[in-house]
Amino acid sequence: MSVNRCVYLLSRSHIRYRVCASTAAVANNTTLHPTRRTFEKLSSRHSSSNSSSRPLDTSLFVPLTLKSDAGGDGTVGEELTQPLDKSKPPRLFHQAFVSFRRYVLEMNSLNADFHIILSDICCGAGHIDDIFPYFMRHAKEIFPMLDCMDDLRKISDLRVPANWYPEARAIQRKIVFHAGPTNSGKTYHAIQRFLAAKSGVYCGPLKLLAHEIYEKSNDAGVPCDLVTGEERISVDPEGRLSGHIASTIEMCNVTTPCEYREHDRLNQYAIPEFMLSADSNLKQSNENAQLKSTKKYEIEVHNYKRLTPFSVSNHAVESLDNLKPGDCIVCFSKNDIYSISRQIEVRGLECAVIYGSLPPGTKLAQAKKFNDPDDPCKILVATDAIGMGLNLSIRRIIFNSLVKPNVNEKGEKELDTISTSQALQISGRAGRFSSVFKEGEVTTMQRDDLPVLKEILGKPVDPIETAGLHPTAEQIEMFAYHLPQATLSNLVDIFVSLAQVDGVYFVCNIDDFKFLADMIQHIPLNLRTRYVFCTAPINKKQAFVCTSFLKFARQFSRDEPLTFNWVCRHVNWPLVPPKNIKDLVHLEAVHDVLDLYLWLSYRFMDMFPDANLIRDIQKELDGIIQVGVHNITRLIRATEDQPTPAENTASTGLAVLDTPPLKRGRGTKNQRKDPRMTDSSLSSRLVRDGLLTKELLQQLQREWVREQSQHGDDSNSANKGKRKKK
């Protein structure tokens, strides 16, 4: 028997004793535990010896630390038997004990049979073990999962996910893995095979990529439909499916047979040929996973090298005065993008701007503007959104910073140095094979960051050794059958805690899912509908998007369709071009809300009936946002000229937008503090722009402090003189 079991039994006896001894019916001291009688005698002896003294303060007794008295036995006991299990007692048992004790002590009346049992024990006519059945019954009432734990474990068993698709596993399949860095031609070769096949499906991680393949296929004379979460386009006038489909990854139909798929997931589809295009660091893990799970796969690997070279410069840019045509400044916050765009305009240059929350049409328009050799715009200011889905003619990548804000498990914002994989993905955009620049260059804005960048790029890329799994709607519904009173968020938590996975898999982060589940928990929806709503791709940092999500769910629960007019009233359509950054941020949020409507319209067509009308105004809104981004420096100037209260600074876009408080991460070696992310004062900007050195700034600060102290002394002397005259 383990120590854990011994502690369990001891606690059980102690619990029963405390429950009995704590009831009002305890009248006979002969039924008390011997240890308790010893302590009571000690207290009574103290009080009888001095009746006028205060009651004994037992908190003054400090327990001594005991050492093992095993002597020279060593581990003989362990050798004769087995090592003891010294894990802590189950938490559920402790919670059940606390609840049971409160139930016994606070209930005005107990069941007759339970009352009689307690009375018998208190009178010495029963045994404390007689309480145990009542304790267990109470525990199962407050923790219903105790009766179905085995079933829950079976449902959450994720150890062989390949068996979820038996039809796909029943056939012999070929997997072609195109492995290589950015700009190596791996995707090009995969797409050529896609176009040559009689039928095929392309699955990409971004809408931009799906749109790109959709256009390339149709331009090449291969009819291809588009399927994304928010959009369906059929090239056939009568709506018949084409042989080729370009879709986002989550929208791929797992039941449609085809000859070929170009994809980034495995083990899902009943197809003869499956092509995976990814970085080479994914190759080994996928090979191992496939060979481990089945022998019906034929795996073919094609390795590629970068088509054009790129090098790390030996000099940092240091000043925006040193920018050249084809430069791309990479920032990791909107605030830096706004600031740098404004500074570039002051120097008489024009720049394009790309960041993640911009609509796809606006991103493409800005990319086209930057790529156009006849356009005066020769500088690009962007976030790491340029890393995927955009073809850009970049000569030099300039990292404005090497730290990127991330949100940890507690919802706190941390600044982490970018990984080797991220640095390579972004750096690889310089000197693309199809661009006018045949060689790429990468550097930093700050001199101190350059050796750090070289160190990052010199490290090997960490291999991707595991893949994520997410509980399906069917699995959560089976959990709900056994736990009908549990909330969706609680069901998911229990699922994750019980889930069993193989070594090459892990359970995905479900924080965003739980965030939405908690938000709409009070709204009456059936479980399947609630699950679908919680998988909606929304930006939870945008307050307007979250509010709209809540209103959508509430309107849905009333069984009232969300019509075009209802949505227009909600977003105050029609909208006008933005006058400042705050207006631009709001328009981006409205675009996300319309995206949410379109996404839900393909899941609940009857309740979201006006998808075509919503798509029309979304395209119009995209054009309005494009106008705003084209004039972004004017918007920044207008925002700077507006006197805004300090508490509203976050909504203007000139401070961190809708983000949790900034905090240094713990336990990450690559974390570095970046003052530009937190300090936008005039002094820091002057230093950053090279108009003021740090030494001069420190000297000015010392002089200012000295003058303030002298001024304070003079004021104090004057005040003292006035008081004396009085």
TrEMBL record:
Give the GO terms filed under biological process for this record. mitochondrial RNA 3'-end processing
Its UniProt entry gives the catalysed reaction(s) as: ATP + H2O = ADP + phosphate + H(+)
GO CC term (a single one): mitochondrial degradosome
Q: Name one GO molecular function term.
A: hydrolase activity
Q: Where is the composition biased (Basic and acidic residues)?
A: 703-714
Q: Return the Gene3D superfamilies for the record.
A: 1.10.1740.140, 1.20.58.1080, P-loop containing nucleotide triphosphate hydrolases
Q: Which residues belong to any copy of the Helicase C-terminal domain?
A: 315-480
Q: Which Pfam families does the record cross-reference, listed alphabetically?
A: DEXQc_Suv3, Helicase_C, SUV3_C, Suv3_C_1, Suv3_N
Comp. bias intervals (Polar residues): 641-652
InterPro entries cross-referenced by the UniProt entry: DEXQc_SUV3, Helicase_C-like, P-loop_NTPase, RNA-DNA_Helicase, SUV3_C, Suv3_C_1, Suv3_N
Q: Where is this region: Disordered?
A: 640-686, 703-726
Q: Sorted alphabetically, which keywords does the UniProt record give?
A: ATP-binding, Helicase, Hydrolase, Nucleotide-binding
Which PANTHER family does its entry note?
A: ATP-DEPENDENT RNA AND DNA HELICASE (PTHR12131), ATP-DEPENDENT RNA HELICASE SUPV3L1, MITOCHONDRIAL-RELATED (PTHR12131:SF1)
Q: Which family does it belong to?
A: Belongs to the helicase family.
Q: What protein am I looking at?
A: ATP-dependent RNA helicase SUPV3L1, mitochondrial
According to the entry, what is the taxonomic lineage of the organism?
Eukaryota, Metazoa, Chordata, Craniata, Vertebrata
